[in-house]
Amino acid sequence: MLITLNGKSKEFPDLNEGASVGDLVSASGLKGDRVAVELNEEIVSRRSWEETFLKSNDKVEIVHFVGGGAS
């Protein structure tokens, strides 16, 4: 499936039409507890990832949280 991920077209050969947002997060190698997802300019709550389905040419933004701070 072809998805625009963070502004770049990317092919996900292991995902088919109807794959969930959760499937995409896993296929991207990210930990689900450390990311936020936007699908076609709408934020998807984490509890809705498995019920939110993708189709080719969807636009997804995934933001990865990084720990740290001033010491």
From TrEMBL:
Q: Which SUPFAM superfamilies match?
A: MoaD/ThiS
Q: Which InterPro entries match?
A: Beta-grasp_dom_sf (IPR012675), Mopterin_synth/thiamin_S_b (IPR016155), Thi_S (IPR010035), ThiS/MoaD-like (IPR003749)
Source taxon at top rank: Bacteria
Name under which the protein is recorded: Sulfur carrier protein ThiS
Q: According to the entry, what is the taxonomic lineage of the organism?
A: Bacteria, Pseudomonadati, Acidobacteriota, Terriglobia, Terriglobales
